Structure formats: structure tokens, C-alpha cells
């Protein structure tokens, strides 16, 4: 209810502070509450993006490669965050990091040239010879090594 009210004092936004702090706490950013976004490390910026999405209380979240370009520490942090915020909502995620996929996905769909190649639980799909052939070049390779 505060959008497009440019003529009002910024103090009119103070009613949102408690909710904003709740969201920062939910994504593990409380200690960065006074930090300008531009000064946040990359992984923390992704957490902030998730917090701003959560502010809209979505039933469905779409995430496009949420761990791309991150170091291991940030990947683990964001993976745990996605697992946490998935409670009570559906998350549709495009992700090529198979360790992330295997640790948080209930169901995966593998696409090849826009068509569904395989679908189901990770343990099943990762052993599918068609998937291994498409992503590793050989049916003998393990999907675990794909990124």
C-alpha cells in the first residue's frame, strides 16, 4: 500500500520495518540489515533476492540457476536457504549443479532440446541411460559428475 507515493516522507515506510527484519532473519541476513546492497557479498545478494520474493508471500517461486557463479560456501548457504523457504510452497528451479539438485529436489525433470527426456526422483533419473548419454556422452558415465 505504499507504492507510488513518492511525495510522502520515507518515515511512512517505518511500518514495514518489523516485517523487513523478519524476512532478513529468515534468510540469515540480520547482521547485514544496515549494509548497502551493493556492498553485500554475491551469495548474500542472492539471499536478499529470495527475501524480497518472500515478501510477496508467493505460493510458487521460480529460481533460475540460483547458485550460478558462487563459491562452495555460498552454494551450501543458498541451498540450505532454498530448502528452508520451500516449506509450504512450490519451487520451480532451473539448476545445473547436480549436487544442489540431488540435495533439495523432490522431483526433477531433465530436458533435451525442449523435450522431456526423464522425470522423477533424482536417484532414478540420475541412473537413466538416456540422461547419462545426453549429458555425459556415454551411458557408462555417472550424472553426479555433470555440472
Cα shape: elongated
Runs with pLDDT <50, length 5+? Answer: 140-147
CATH topology of the domain at 10-105: Rossmann fold
Output the CATH homologous superfamily of the domain at 10-105. Answer: P-loop containing nucleotide triphosphate hydrolases
Instruction: Please report the first level of CATH classification, the CATH class of the domain at 10-105.
Output: Alpha Beta
- Computed Rg: 19 Å
Overall residue-averaged pLDDT value: 84
H/E element sequence: HHEHEHEEHH
- Main sheet? 2 strands, parallel
Distance between the termini: 43 Å
Task: Reconstruct the topology from this structure.
Blueprint: H1 17-26, H2 42-54, E1 60-64, H3 72-85, E2 90-94, H4 98-104, E3 108-112, E4 115-120, H5 122-125, H6 129-136
Parallel strand pairs: 1-2
Antiparallel strand pairs: 3-4
Helix pairs in contact: 2-3
Structure summary:
The chain is 38% helix and 14% strand. The protein is an alpha+beta fold.
Question: How is this structure best described in words?
Answer:
The chain has helices at 17-26, 42-54, 72-85, 98-104, 122-125, 129-136, and strands at residues 60-64, 90-94, 108-112, 115-120. The protein is α+β, with helices and mostly antiparallel strands and 147 residues long. It has a domain at 10-105: P-loop containing nucleotide triphosphate hydrolases (Rossmann fold), CATH 3.40.50.300. Helix 2 (42-54) runs parallel beside helix 3.
Amino acid at each position: 500500500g505504499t507504492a507510488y507515493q513518492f511525495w510522502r516522507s520515507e518515515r511512512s515506510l517505518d511500518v514495514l520495518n518489523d516485517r523487513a527484519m523478519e524476512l532478513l532473519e529468515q534468510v540469515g541476513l540480520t547482521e547485514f540489515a544496515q549494509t548497502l546492497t551493493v556492498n553485500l557479498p554475491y551469495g548474500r545478494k542472492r539471499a536478499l533476492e529470495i527475501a524480497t520474493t518472500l515478501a510477496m508471500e508467493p505460493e510458487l517461486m521460480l529460481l533460475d540457476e540460483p547458485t550460478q557463479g558462487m563459491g562452495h560456501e555460498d552454494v551450501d548457504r543458498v541451498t540450505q536457504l532454498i530448502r528452508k523457504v520451500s516449506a509450504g510452497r512450490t519451487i520451480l528451479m532451473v539448476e545445473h549443479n547436480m549436487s544442489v539438485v540431488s540435495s533439495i529436489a523432490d522431483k526433477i525433470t531433465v530436458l533435451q532440446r525442449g523435450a522431456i527426456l526423464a522425470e522423477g526422483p533424482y536417484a532414478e533419473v540420475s541412473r537413466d541411460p538416456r540422461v547419462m548419454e545426453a549429458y555425459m556422452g556415454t551411458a557408462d558415465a555417472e550424472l553426479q559428475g555433470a555440472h
